[in-house]
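Example (one chain per record):
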Amino acid sequence: MAKISFKDFEKIMLYDISKIPGSCIEIDFDVQGSLKYQGSWLGKMINNDTNKEDYWFGLVPDGSEAYEFTNFGDFTNAKIFDGKSLKEIWSVISIVTIDGVDAHEMLPYRIPSWKPF
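Predicted structure:
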């Protein structure tokens, strides 16, 4: 698992996926200290109906906490983690994988200046 700054996370998520057909971003993450939010997912994909980017969460396995947003601000500020937003709990987010690859292996490609903390 990896810890990254919110600024680095923002750089990853704001990458223009529309340039590569079928491209998306998928991040598997855990919320430290939470039994509920382990193996949670977030990402970005192109909405086939609007041809625009959608940001999404799949927080629990049964699908009862799945959310979609049309912009990064709403995505990161929505109070979906027991009344808190992703931005508010960022300090306790650990990234497991990015696009199916171990976070420690993928981060140097996504954020060349990234160093583990």
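Caption: The helical segments are 6-13, 72-77, 86-89, 103-110.
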